[in-house]
TrEMBL record:
Molecular function in Gene Ontology: hydrolase activity; ribonuclease T2 activity; RNA binding
Alphabetic keyword roster: Disulfide bond, Endonuclease, Hydrolase, Lyase, Nuclease, Signal
Name under which the protein is recorded: Uncharacterized protein
InterPro entries: Ribonuclease_T2_eukaryotic, RNase_T2-like, RNase_T2-like_sf, RNase_T2_His_AS_1, RNase_T2_His_AS_2
Signal sequence residues: 1-23
GO annotation (BP), single: RNA catabolic process
Species assigned in the record: Citrus clementina (Clementine)
Active site feature: 61, 115, 119
């Protein structure tokens, strides 16, 4: 009798845990934007998209589902495919705001497919493919990072800026503290490379980061021209 009860209890616990797992696919998003000048300065081989040199503005890298413990899911749908037809009316917006810089020169489909298959498919409980790309475009407009930095006198002029003043400028403009990732150019300068903002699971509001992404920046960083 005692044994039967414990098996029953265990089954209940297993059932409860499986419901928890299904209902919570991820905890928040990192919305990652990238400075093209830094990508091109470091990766000797950056190539402009077929449509031409992107604007001197931050570009979207991705919208990544995250867990609070610092880990993240990826490639969640083994049958996941990117269907360009679902977002044909967003393509010109994506070209402008989510530009590819990889070589050889291409139209961006490869980068968008990679981001959707690797990261987007892990948010499918919240957003379908169209909603995923639309949400990212809206978030970029909302953050308006280049303007936030310009308002604080921080411009892509090859100058060096205090990391803390970059963080403060974005906090002032958006209300939230970003995570900053740097890279190192061939002259060993630490450069402003990617800016991470945290977003709620519906991909509509910035939130305070439950977990700050790791940073690799010097206390003073270069903001290269593009
Ligand atoms: P890294 O090793 O930081 O250059 O990252 C390489 C790639 O791993 C990124 O472009 C992402 O696709 C992925 N990655 C790294 N950290 C995360 C994270 N916290 N969440 C989602 N993807 C990540
Ligand atoms: P993660 O795997 O983001 O999602 O992204 C890492 C991959 O995306 C790497 O292969 C990077 O080289 C590539 N990547 C990062 N930024 C860009 C970009 N602007 N254009 C094309 N590929 C990129």
């Amino acid at each position: 009798m005692k044994l039967q009860f414990s098996i029953f209890t265990k089954l209940l616990i297993i059932q409860y845990l499986s419901i928890l797992c299904v209902s919570q696919d991820f905890d928040f998003f990192y919305f990652v934007q990238q400075w093209p000048g830094s990508y091109c300065d470091t990766k000797q081989s950056c190539c402009y998209p077929k449509s031409g040199k992107p604007a001197a503005d931050f570009g979207i890298h991705g919208l990544w589902p995250e867990y609070k413990d610092g880990s993240y899911p990826s490639n969640c749908d083994p049958d996941g495919v990117f269907e360009k037809s679902q977002i044909s009316d967003l393509i010109s917006d994506l070209r402008q705001n989510w530009p590819t810089l990889s070589c050889p020169s291409n139209d961006g489909t490869k980068f968008w497919t990679h981001e959707w298959v690797k990261h987007g498919t892990c948010a499918e409980s919240e957003l379908d493919q169209r909603e995923y790309f639309e949400a990212a475009l809206k978030l970029k407009e909302k953050a308006n990072l280049l303007q936030a930095l310009k308002n604080a006198g921080i411009k892509p002029d090859d100058g060096f800026y205090e990391l803390e003043s970059i963080i403060a400028a974005i906090k002032e403009a958006t209300g939230f503290t970003p995570g900053i990732e740097c890279n190192v150019d061939p002259e060993h300068n630490s450069q402003l490379y990617q800016i991470y903002m945290c977003v709620d699971t519906s991909a509509s509001e910035f939130i305070q980061c439950p977990k700050q992404p790791r940073k690799k920046c010097a206390s003073t960083v270069q903001f290269p021209r593009f």
